[in-house]
Amino acid sequence: MSKGNGYKPGGRATRPTGRDMKTLAWLWRHPLVWSVPAVLVAGWARYGWLPVAYTLAGAVGVLLVWWRVHPPTFDRWVLPTLRAFKRRWWDYRGGLWGALLFECDLTRDNRLTGEILVPRLERVRAVTPSIDVLRVRMVRGQDLRAWTDRSEALAEALCAHRVAVAKARPGRLTVVVERENPFAVPLPAPEIPTSVDEVDLSALDIGDDEFGQPVLVSVTGTSHLFVAGATGTGKSSTIWGPLRQMGPMIRDGLVRVRVIDPKGGTETEIGKELFYRRAVTTEDALELLREAREDMKAAQQRLRGDKMRRAVLGPDSPQDLIMVDELAMLTAFASRGDRGEAIALLSEIMTQGRNTLFNVAGYVQEPSKDVVEIRELFTTRICLGVTAASHVDMALGDGARDRGALADEIPLDEEHAGIGFRVDKGSRLPRRLRLGHTTDEDITELVKRCAPLPPAGLAVVRNTGEVA
């Protein structure tokens, strides 16, 4: 067809959509904008203005009473809706949203019509006062990279601490706007359950995330915990927090904790009575891993003899947790022979230990491939404050920093200890978290309440030479 009739070859229009059609489409997408006023006007016309005013005043009164009488349920069910409404129609209203994206180079020009195409804001959720979650429909020709490359500029334009972007589904993005630090106050240490029945090894609560939800970690099944963080960032909280949560099971012999602390045992000395085995040198660490591997093989043989696929947690088949505080001492800085044996033993336990209840938790300062060759075997990963941007992707997976896990920008001081990121398994979007701070007094309490009694006749803890 000819150029002057409004079309290009392929059926692409050269005229922009009319404003009247855009207005109708906008009203169709936002029915409350016209339906609520229409209902009020209809009620006024039928019953008069006084009943309508009384109805509105009654609704407001009920909300005020609810707000004062029972704040927890009001904050959970009503406040997020009111907050999201305010943010949607004030902070992200149409003209402001379009100008914001234009200034951040997140709009596109339609070269046929000359129209500026603005990504559509489809939904705003404000679950907490500090976090907004936006669902955005990209314009044709954009991709995730265009947004992640401009996330820092978008954060500055919004006066926000952080903006994280992830793909929700084709053509749609999830944009998390962190308006302020949600962890201004340190969290207390995780509680010690009163009984074994209260312990869930697949959901140990060790802190809170930025949405106010508990941070749960698993030490059973296919879960192996990996924690990266520079010195002073709170890695010890991911050691003692889970131990406090599973304390009654340690006391009753349902969990056996084997600890490798190759830094001379300084971190774990205070809680040594909790551990089934403990090693503080490379030689002792290898002996501990060999023993764990042999115990796993024996458990596999028992399962075959009983024709069972998976061990059942009990006194005769406890959960074995191997905690390695500073993996690099075994996997990078040991001699070549010791390093190779340590990696082989850990790999064998991590790949074969699921059915026999063997799991590993590893902690490291530098999560590079050269330091931790087996990091891909860890299924649950947490990244606290680190010293290099590259460490974030090494710890959490490729693209994690582009999606908002700015762990390298967390200040390395006591005030920010325990703050980090983990990737949400459902959305692949990084979530900021803060771990409960475990003090020496909290560890002492754990030892007093949950240290297991040694078996009769056992006076020495193997591999350490320490009296139990």
UniProtKB/TrEMBL annotation:
PROSITE patterns: FTSK (PS50901). ATP binds at residues 229-236. Residues 282-309 form a coiled coil. SUPFAM superfamilies: P-loop containing nucleoside triphosphate hydrolases. Keywords: ATP-binding, Coiled coil, Membrane, Nucleotide-binding, Transmembrane, Transmembrane helix. The chain crosses the membrane at residues 51-69. Residues 212-393 form the FtsK domain. InterPro entries: FtsK/SpoIIIE/SftA (IPR050206), FtsK_dom (IPR002543), P-loop_NTPase (IPR027417). This is FtsK/SpoIIIE domain-containing protein.
